[in-house]
Specification:
With 215 residues, this protein is an alpha/beta fold. It has a single domain, classed as Phosphoglycerate mutase-like (Rossmann fold). The chain is built from 4 helices and 6 strands. Strands 3-2-4-1-5-6 form a 6-stranded mixed sheet, with helices on both faces. Strand 2, helix 2 and strand 3 form a beta-alpha-beta unit. The radius of gyration is 17 Å and the shape is globular. It starts with 6 loop residues before the first strand and ends in a 15-residue tail after the last strand. GO terms for molecular function: phosphatase activity. This is Broad specificity phosphatase PhoE.
Amino acid sequence: MSAMSEKTIVHLLRHGEVHNPEGILYGRLPGYRLSEDGVLMAQSVAKWLTDRDVTALFSSPLERALETAAPIAETFDLPVTVEDRLIEAGNRFEGLTFGVGQGSLRRPAHWPFLVNPVRPSWGEPYTKIASRMKGAVIAAREAARGHEAVCVSHQLPIWTLRRFAERRRMWHHPRRRQCELASVTSLTFEDGRLVEVAYHEPAAGLVRRPTVPGA
């Protein structure tokens, strides 16, 4: 990096654990808030970020993301800017339990939604997710030029953008995503050019298995 180059970091933060005892794929549904552990996760991330140069904070409009952003806002005395492009991916199975057995996959009416995992046929196309997330990251990068920004979002949007940024195919197996609850995927830019992608799990000690459906 030359002496005159400008370094900006955008941290993509997945929200903390959600209170969801029924195991619903909650997607964009309202009313799904952080669990007690989820609140602790959010606090852990804020503590982890304390010594960073965070000057801008953005969040998905969903409750769980806004609650995850709250301790960061308090730590840095920043307003939370709601950014709709950070919202969870759309999904046709929203509001249902997902899987075989008693899950939604056992219903023949749902099988046509599973025919194309590359798009995917059951929800918002990966290309659309990547495009809106890229726009949100660019806006955050410009807002925090020369400093750092935090964007609170959801597992699939963050993972899709990372695969896009790393020039990997966007379709993938959900269980192979490297995007744990309250994890941070950091994008480092030099003069607007992406030069590094890093991954951290500040709240790893609070994550239990299996994690809840939805992201």
